[in-house]
Fold this sequence. Notes:
By secondary structure, chain A is an alpha/beta fold. The first copy, chain A, has helices spanning 4-11, 15-22, 30-43, 49-56, 72-87, 101-113, 130-138, 161-174, 190-205, 222-233, 247-259, 277-282, 293-308; strands spanning 61-66, 91-96, 118-121, 141-144, 155-159, 180-184, 215-217, 241-244, 269-273, 287-290, 319-322, 325-328, 347-349. The termini of chain A are far apart.
Amino acid sequence: MPTIYDVAKRAGVSAMTVSRVINGKKDVKPETREKVIKVIEELGYVPNSLARSFVLQKTKTIGLVITDITNPFFTTLARGVEDTAMKNQFSVIFCNTDEDPEKEVLYLELLARKRVDGVILASASGKRTPLKSLLIEGIPVVLIDREVDGLEDLDIVKGDSVHGAYLLTKHLINLGYRRIGIIVGNKNISTAEDRVEGYKKALIESGIPIEEELIKFSRYSKEGGYISTKELLSLEDPPTAIFGGNNFIAIGAMIAIREEGLRVPEDIALVSFDDIESLSEVYPFFTVVTQPAYSMGVIATELLIRRVENKDRVRERRKVILQPELIIRGSAGENLVKEVREEGEKVRVDD
Amino acid sequence: MPTIYDVAKRAGVSAMTVSRVINGKKDVKPETREKVIKVIEELGYVPNSLARSFVLQKTKTIGLVITDITNPFFTTLARGVEDTAMKNQFSVIFCNTDEDPEKEVLYLELLARKRVDGVILASASGKRTPLKSLLIEGIPVVLIDREVDGLEDLDIVKGDSVHGAYLLTKHLINLGYRRIGIIVGNKNISTAEDRVEGYKKALIESGIPIEEELIKFSRYSKEGGYISTKELLSLEDPPTAIFGGNNFIAIGAMIAIREEGLRVPEDIALVSFDDIESLSEVYPFFTVVTQPAYSMGVIATELLIRRVENKDRVRERRKVILQPELIIRGSAGENLVKEVREEGEKVRVDD
DNA sequence: TGATATACTGTTATCAGTAACTTAAAGTTT
DNA sequence: AAACTTTAAGTTACTGATAACAGTATATCA
């Protein structure tokens, strides 16, 4: 592949002049500029951004660390990140940790080696590690979706999990359910704790006793939802409603429920945190609380890029908490009992 | 951030020795090695792969150009790519073209600038452009999912669209449908042509006349499916079954059909090329032909990496065509009429 | 004992750009 | 016409790592 020197020689100018042409700087005579452009096309010269990044000490690249691109919530979020990055001439390196803290460390190290300009992190570990410390000293980090213990000073964009879980639980209670099981992810993931907190808040508010056997800290995955549902269903006094802590858990729960020969919502209610778009479009089934995943991606990327380019020299943390939305469909048996709605809450009713 | 020289100075050795330690080369005295490692940890030194890539002329990065990460087919494929890349110490830069040839050019140029070691391309344009020519001279490219005119010499991994469409159409015919509409993507995308070809083949074989008004070259998107379905339904003699050329088209079709007050499958059959996993797990509804998207990603990445590392110096093109699978569920009214199955074909029946 | 191999470490040049500085010529001002 | 400014270039040094080569010290062998 030709270099800037090949272009320079052929155009009869210095490399610096070619550099100026490429970067659209002034101080180049129009004729010279044209000649250089012609040579660039003739040779099929493509600037080497490796070398460029190397001298300029910026890569115009950000890293996105999520748990699983296969999860619709994260793919939508990722799309928001990518679109926004592209708009700002940044590219994105994707990393799937599969909720594995070791993979997370691996990827963070990789990103640090690649000297990405910034990182958007949905942490799997929820804890500050030596590497993370290192990273945030050298590279701006914006947290997304989840808090990380010990990194309370970083910018963060997340949904209001406490309130969302409260809404969803309250909805079940209003429909008459009393024994409500909840399945969330690993305990050190902030959303898991938050969603349980919202759930408890709703129960307490309605004077329903909290039973620990109905609360499952599992994994944010189909398997997690499947296994925990089986456990819940085999309790002596099984729940009459299940709250899936995320979309994958709800899918796993659905599979388990069907295996047990039960129907949703006739035999048991099933609601979910996070929607599954392609499912809902074809079959508006799950009553859910959705988060604006795309916006989360967009906002996080904007915050990050501003930090990277140091446009706003705000030193204090920026914390963006987006409100979730309750979408009532049919999986809690809303059509079987009379419909109840909270007043003043953001609520949408699908057909 | 500390450099290799900072480490060298503090450890009282040369940069070269540090380099040898980092890269696990022999010819370093154990004590020296330990001392260097200690300093690396003390300083929190992270090697600069920018500089490394620059001298070694390889970036250990590949580019993945797809149309939309939001499409479950591509996210699964992307996951296959990412996992395989990671396994081989490669990272992946994602690019969404949204079926826009201009965006495709933009991204290819970006990847060329970044001097990625290779590119996996699901082309939106279907045509060879000057940039693509340039790219393939300097950077190995593996095509995925779609052929590109003029690039018949590149490795490719794709599904057998002709056969898949044939299977699906044949299935409809066997169920008694005669007026079958088909909606596929843009005409210059190879899968669109192939799927129509398979569709025609099945019709001809059964002696059913081909009617051009039932064949829609639209867009591989929900909007495309929606609009074309509306058109089909407003024909004087509308189809009794619709073949969605991909999953998004099928979703769009479903929405349009519902808007028209029709039911699937009672009033009209609807089948789809490509499954929608999260939908099918909860609600096994669509009768589809699926492609092994994850495997496609894995195989393409393996082919690419082998080219990059030049392990096999095969010069001839490697063409991997994966067979699709017909999954019979209920959206073609299989439960309404008696079930018919092709003999010897790969067929699965979901409950 | 001298020759040769081996283990370990250092030196130098280089990769492809760009910042900062320098130079040369042309234009402007008084 | 001397002094100054502007325009349009070119030169040099540097980014962080590594390959290739060059030493030096120690070990091994005939």
